[in-house]
Amino acid sequence: MRLYLASTSPARLALLRAAGIEPVLINPDVDEARVVAETETVRGSALEPRVLVELLARAKAEAAASARLAEPLNGLLLGGDSVFVLDDVIYGKPHTADAARERWERQRGRTGTLYSGHWLIELADGVPGRAIGAVAVAEVTFADDLDDAELDAYIATGEPLFVAGAFTIDSLGAPFITSIVGDPSTVVGLSLPTLRRLVRALGHEWPTLWNRPGAL
């Protein structure tokens, strides 16, 4: 069973590879701000974190499913999105060093919540069929002894600028996190246990996705 990944995230790709899956990557090319703004206009209110990440995961999956590709898609297509929440404020990617520093000054020594949305579509000869979504949640606690020199050095690497919440657990940011409550892969941006449940809900077995050496 082929898995297509509607994402350009290196972390999601590495996570799937470590789990024995080499996905086919498709750039979903979604204007996330526009999707959110249009939905909030219809609803007349801001989106809750769970609704937001599932909405964007679905938008990415559906955009990838309708993309014009050389060959029709056959298999399962996954879209994903993540946000970090602290003090009821939703944080995506900071993009700038100043924004990343401001977030870390708020979150060090504290606990926040990472929401990861998933949307899985079944396709046959390029035609979308059944689809299902889910949201995984994990609590993340940051070190309270992170000093300014360490923070400056971390921000200077550029890593926190392009990840939800301005941190990682699978790379340079890992030593600054003291505990995680929930599935750790959720914090990477794709919950493997959640994806397995979605695959099984569509009538497929998880091992059929294994296609990397060592997994077979």
What would you say about this model in short?
With 216 residues, this protein is of the alpha/beta class.
Molecular structure report:
This protein is α/β, with parallel strands linked by helices and 216 residues long. It has a single domain (3-209), classed as Maf protein, CATH 3.90.950.10. It is 34% helix and 26% strand. The protein contains seven helices and seven strands, in the order βαβααββαββαβαα. It has helices spanning 10-18, 32-43, 49-65, 97-107, 148-156, 184-188, 192-201; strands at 3-6, 24-25, 75-86, 89-91, 111-124, 127-142, 177-181. Strands 1, 2, 3, 4, 5, 6 and 7 form a seven-stranded mixed sheet that branches. Strand 5 and strand 6 (127-142) form a beta hairpin. Helix 4 packs antiparallel against helix 5 (148-156). The longest helix is centred in the first third of the chain and has 17 residues, at 49-65. The mean pLDDT is 94.
